[in-house]
Fold Short-chain dehydrogenase.
Amino acid sequence: MAKTLLITGASSGIGAATAKAAAAAGWNVALLARSGDKLTDLANEIGDAALPIQADVTDRGEVTSAVERTVDRFGALDAVFANAGTGVNNPGIETGDPQEWHDMIHVNILAVLYTAHATLPELRKTKGNFIVTGSKAGREHFKGSVYSATKWFVHGFAGNLAEEMREFGGRCCVISPGMVNTEFFDEPKPTKLQPEDVADAVVFALNQPDTSAVREIHMMPND
Ligand code: NJP
Protein backbone atom coordinates (compact mmCIF):
# COMPACT_ATOMS: atom_id res chain seq x y z
CA MET A 1 0.00 0.00 0.00
CA ALA A 2 1.26 3.48 -0.83
CA LYS A 3 2.58 5.53 2.07
CA THR A 4 1.21 9.00 2.82
CA LEU A 5 3.07 12.30 3.15
CA LEU A 6 1.46 15.52 4.44
CA ILE A 7 3.14 18.67 3.08
CA THR A 8 2.61 22.20 4.43
CA GLY A 9 3.40 25.09 2.10
CA ALA A 10 2.51 22.89 -0.86
CA SER A 11 1.08 25.62 -3.10
CA SER A 12 4.41 26.74 -4.58
CA GLY A 13 8.19 26.44 -4.55
CA ILE A 14 9.82 23.64 -2.54
CA GLY A 15 6.52 22.24 -1.24
CA ALA A 16 4.90 21.95 -4.70
CA ALA A 17 8.06 20.40 -6.19
CA THR A 18 8.19 17.91 -3.31
CA ALA A 19 4.55 16.96 -3.85
CA LYS A 20 5.30 16.08 -7.47
CA ALA A 21 8.53 14.23 -6.65
CA ALA A 22 7.01 12.24 -3.79
CA ALA A 23 3.94 11.31 -5.86
CA ALA A 24 6.23 10.20 -8.69
CA ALA A 25 8.05 8.02 -6.12
CA GLY A 26 4.75 6.34 -5.18
CA TRP A 27 3.61 8.38 -2.16
CA ASN A 28 0.12 9.72 -1.51
CA VAL A 29 0.36 13.44 -0.80
CA ALA A 30 -1.87 15.70 1.31
CA LEU A 31 -1.29 19.28 0.16
CA LEU A 32 -1.77 22.14 2.65
CA ALA A 33 -1.61 25.89 2.02
CA ARG A 34 -3.92 28.90 2.05
CA SER A 35 -4.09 29.22 -1.76
CA GLY A 36 -6.85 26.74 -2.54
CA ASP A 37 -6.84 27.35 -6.31
CA LYS A 38 -3.13 26.57 -6.60
CA LEU A 39 -3.59 23.39 -4.56
CA THR A 40 -6.48 22.27 -6.78
CA ASP A 41 -4.38 22.80 -9.92
CA LEU A 42 -1.47 20.86 -8.39
CA ALA A 43 -3.73 18.03 -7.22
CA ASN A 44 -5.29 17.79 -10.71
CA GLU A 45 -1.80 17.54 -12.18
CA ILE A 46 -0.79 14.76 -9.74
CA GLY A 47 -4.05 12.77 -9.86
CA ASP A 48 -5.71 10.45 -7.31
CA ALA A 49 -2.63 10.30 -5.08
CA ALA A 50 -3.15 13.98 -4.11
CA LEU A 51 -5.55 15.49 -1.58
CA PRO A 52 -5.69 19.31 -1.61
CA ILE A 53 -6.60 20.85 1.76
CA GLN A 54 -6.90 24.62 2.08
CA ALA A 55 -5.51 25.44 5.52
CA ASP A 56 -3.71 28.22 7.34
CA VAL A 57 -1.00 26.55 9.41
CA THR A 58 -1.18 29.31 12.03
CA ASP A 59 -4.69 28.04 12.87
CA ARG A 60 -4.34 24.99 15.12
CA GLY A 61 -7.87 23.81 14.40
CA GLU A 62 -7.28 23.86 10.64
CA VAL A 63 -4.05 21.86 11.04
CA THR A 64 -5.77 19.28 13.24
CA SER A 65 -8.70 18.88 10.86
CA ALA A 66 -6.31 18.57 7.87
CA VAL A 67 -4.57 15.67 9.62
CA GLU A 68 -7.94 14.00 10.26
CA ARG A 69 -8.97 14.42 6.62
CA THR A 70 -5.65 12.97 5.45
CA VAL A 71 -5.98 9.86 7.62
CA ASP A 72 -9.66 9.45 6.63
CA ARG A 73 -8.72 9.54 2.94
CA PHE A 74 -5.49 7.52 2.91
CA GLY A 75 -5.78 5.37 6.06
CA ALA A 76 -2.55 6.42 7.81
CA LEU A 77 0.10 9.11 7.98
CA ASP A 78 3.68 7.97 7.34
CA ALA A 79 5.54 11.26 6.94
CA VAL A 80 5.19 15.02 7.30
CA PHE A 81 7.05 17.79 5.48
CA ALA A 82 6.61 20.92 7.64
CA ASN A 83 7.73 23.35 4.98
CA ALA A 84 5.43 26.40 5.14
CA GLY A 85 7.46 29.50 5.85
CA THR A 86 7.58 33.25 5.45
CA GLY A 87 10.37 35.77 5.59
CA VAL A 88 10.99 39.49 5.51
CA ASN A 89 14.43 40.95 5.31
CA ASN A 90 15.08 44.12 7.22
CA PRO A 91 18.28 45.92 8.01
CA GLY A 92 18.05 45.52 11.78
CA ILE A 93 15.99 45.31 14.95
CA GLU A 94 15.85 49.10 15.47
CA THR A 95 14.05 49.64 12.17
CA GLY A 96 12.12 46.35 12.06
CA ASP A 97 8.34 46.03 12.07
CA PRO A 98 7.05 44.08 15.10
CA GLN A 99 4.03 42.82 13.13
CA GLU A 100 6.40 41.23 10.61
CA TRP A 101 8.29 39.58 13.50
CA HIS A 102 5.00 38.26 14.80
CA ASP A 103 4.06 36.79 11.40
CA MET A 104 7.45 35.10 10.94
CA ILE A 105 7.41 33.66 14.46
CA HIS A 106 3.85 32.42 13.99
CA VAL A 107 4.44 30.66 10.65
CA ASN A 108 8.08 29.56 11.03
CA ILE A 109 8.02 28.58 14.71
CA LEU A 110 4.56 28.14 16.23
CA ALA A 111 2.99 26.56 13.14
CA VAL A 112 5.83 24.01 12.98
CA LEU A 113 4.99 23.14 16.60
CA TYR A 114 1.26 22.94 15.78
CA THR A 115 2.07 20.65 12.85
CA ALA A 116 4.25 18.38 14.98
CA HIS A 117 1.69 18.35 17.80
CA ALA A 118 -1.16 17.38 15.46
CA THR A 119 0.76 14.75 13.49
CA LEU A 120 2.90 12.97 16.09
CA PRO A 121 0.11 10.68 17.34
CA GLU A 122 -0.26 9.38 13.76
CA LEU A 123 3.51 9.21 13.14
CA ARG A 124 3.90 7.22 16.35
CA LYS A 125 1.58 4.54 14.89
CA THR A 126 3.60 4.29 11.65
CA LYS A 127 7.09 4.95 13.11
CA GLY A 128 7.01 7.83 10.69
CA ASN A 129 9.27 10.62 9.55
CA PHE A 130 8.97 14.37 10.32
CA ILE A 131 10.94 16.54 7.91
CA VAL A 132 11.11 20.30 8.41
CA THR A 133 12.49 23.09 6.27
CA GLY A 134 15.22 24.98 8.05
CA SER A 135 17.69 27.18 6.25
CA LYS A 136 21.29 28.10 5.75
CA ALA A 137 20.09 31.16 7.70
CA GLY A 138 19.44 28.80 10.64
CA ARG A 139 23.13 27.87 10.77
CA GLU A 140 24.71 31.32 10.35
CA HIS A 141 24.22 34.76 11.91
CA PHE A 142 22.92 37.73 9.94
CA LYS A 143 22.67 41.29 11.21
CA GLY A 144 19.33 41.75 13.00
CA SER A 145 17.54 39.03 11.02
CA VAL A 146 14.45 37.75 12.84
CA TYR A 147 13.89 35.35 9.93
CA SER A 148 17.30 33.81 10.58
CA ALA A 149 16.50 33.51 14.30
CA THR A 150 13.26 31.65 13.52
CA LYS A 151 15.23 29.14 11.46
CA TRP A 152 17.76 28.70 14.31
CA PHE A 153 14.73 27.66 16.35
CA VAL A 154 13.75 25.16 13.65
CA HIS A 155 17.21 23.57 13.69
CA GLY A 156 17.23 23.28 17.48
CA PHE A 157 13.70 21.95 17.56
CA ALA A 158 14.41 19.34 14.86
CA GLY A 159 17.31 17.93 16.84
CA ASN A 160 15.22 17.62 19.98
CA LEU A 161 12.26 16.16 18.09
CA ALA A 162 14.56 13.57 16.52
CA GLU A 163 15.44 12.38 20.03
CA GLU A 164 11.75 12.32 21.04
CA MET A 165 10.70 10.39 17.92
CA ARG A 166 13.60 7.97 18.21
CA GLU A 167 11.93 6.52 21.32
CA PHE A 168 9.16 5.06 19.14
CA GLY A 169 11.25 4.28 16.06
CA GLY A 170 10.40 7.53 14.27
CA ARG A 171 12.79 9.94 12.58
CA CYS A 172 13.18 13.70 12.15
CA CYS A 173 15.25 15.50 9.53
CA VAL A 174 15.91 19.19 8.88
CA ILE A 175 16.53 20.35 5.32
CA SER A 176 18.67 23.48 5.23
CA PRO A 177 19.06 24.98 1.79
CA GLY A 178 20.85 28.10 0.70
CA MET A 179 18.98 30.41 -1.65
CA VAL A 180 16.42 28.54 -3.77
CA ASN A 181 14.74 29.77 -6.95
CA THR A 182 11.13 30.12 -5.64
CA GLU A 183 8.46 32.76 -5.04
CA PHE A 184 9.84 33.29 -1.53
CA PHE A 185 11.41 36.61 -2.48
CA ASP A 186 9.44 39.57 -3.83
CA GLU A 187 12.00 39.89 -6.61
CA PRO A 188 13.70 36.91 -8.28
CA LYS A 189 17.19 36.32 -6.83
CA PRO A 190 20.06 34.89 -8.85
CA THR A 191 20.58 31.33 -7.60
CA LYS A 192 21.24 28.00 -9.26
CA LEU A 193 19.49 25.89 -6.61
CA GLN A 194 16.06 24.78 -7.84
CA PRO A 195 13.03 23.66 -5.79
CA GLU A 196 13.24 20.30 -7.61
CA ASP A 197 16.76 19.81 -6.18
CA VAL A 198 15.44 20.29 -2.64
CA ALA A 199 12.46 18.03 -3.41
CA ASP A 200 14.84 15.24 -4.46
CA ALA A 201 16.65 15.59 -1.13
CA VAL A 202 13.36 15.31 0.78
CA VAL A 203 12.45 12.15 -1.14
CA PHE A 204 15.91 10.76 -0.37
CA ALA A 205 15.29 11.29 3.37
CA LEU A 206 11.78 9.81 3.07
CA ASN A 207 12.93 6.68 1.30
CA GLN A 208 15.66 5.65 3.73
CA PRO A 209 15.49 2.07 5.01
CA ASP A 210 14.44 1.50 8.65
CA THR A 211 18.11 1.14 9.55
CA SER A 212 18.98 4.75 8.66
CA ALA A 213 17.89 8.15 9.99
CA VAL A 214 19.01 11.14 7.92
CA ARG A 215 19.02 13.96 10.50
CA GLU A 216 20.08 16.94 8.37
CA ILE A 217 20.59 17.78 4.72
CA HIS A 218 22.44 21.01 4.03
CA MET A 219 22.55 22.02 0.38
CA MET A 220 23.86 25.07 -1.44
CA PRO A 221 23.59 26.47 -4.95
CA ASN A 222 26.53 25.16 -6.95
CA ASP A 223 27.85 28.57 -8.00
O1 NJP B 1 8.82 29.70 -0.89
P1 NJP B 1 7.34 29.89 -1.44
P2 NJP B 1 9.76 28.42 -0.69
N1 NJP B 1 -0.42 28.77 6.16
O2 NJP B 1 6.98 31.29 -1.11
C1 NJP B 1 3.09 28.64 2.45
C2 NJP B 1 12.35 27.91 3.27
N2 NJP B 1 13.56 28.40 2.61
O3 NJP B 1 9.26 27.24 -1.38
O4 NJP B 1 -0.48 29.80 2.05
C3 NJP B 1 -0.19 27.85 5.21
O5 NJP B 1 7.25 29.43 -2.85
C4 NJP B 1 2.75 29.29 1.11
O6 NJP B 1 1.42 28.98 0.73
P3 NJP B 1 0.16 30.01 0.73
C5 NJP B 1 11.31 28.93 3.64
O7 NJP B 1 11.62 29.60 4.83
C6 NJP B 1 13.49 29.01 1.41
O8 NJP B 1 11.12 28.88 -0.97
O9 NJP B 1 -0.67 29.50 -0.39
N3 NJP B 1 0.80 27.93 4.32
C7 NJP B 1 3.70 28.56 0.19
O10 NJP B 1 3.15 27.33 -0.24
C8 NJP B 1 10.10 28.04 3.78
O11 NJP B 1 10.06 27.47 5.07
C9 NJP B 1 14.66 29.44 0.80
O12 NJP B 1 0.71 31.38 0.54
C10 NJP B 1 1.58 29.03 4.36
C11 NJP B 1 4.90 28.28 1.08
O13 NJP B 1 4.50 28.51 2.45
C12 NJP B 1 10.34 26.93 2.76
O14 NJP B 1 11.70 27.05 2.36
C13 NJP B 1 15.89 29.24 1.42
C14 NJP B 1 1.41 30.03 5.32
C15 NJP B 1 6.07 29.20 0.75
O15 NJP B 1 6.47 28.88 -0.54
C16 NJP B 1 9.48 26.99 1.51
O16 NJP B 1 9.63 28.25 0.88
C17 NJP B 1 15.91 28.63 2.65
C18 NJP B 1 0.35 29.87 6.23
N4 NJP B 1 0.09 30.80 7.18
C19 NJP B 1 14.75 28.20 3.24
N5 NJP B 1 2.34 31.00 5.11
C20 NJP B 1 14.67 30.14 -0.52
N6 NJP B 1 13.57 30.13 -1.27
O17 NJP B 1 15.72 30.68 -0.89
C21 NJP B 1 3.08 30.60 4.05
O18 NJP B 1 17.09 28.46 3.23
N7 NJP B 1 2.63 29.41 3.59
Observations:
- Residues 4-219 form a domain with the Rossmann fold fold (CATH 3.40.50.720).
- The two ends are 41 Å apart (CA to CA).
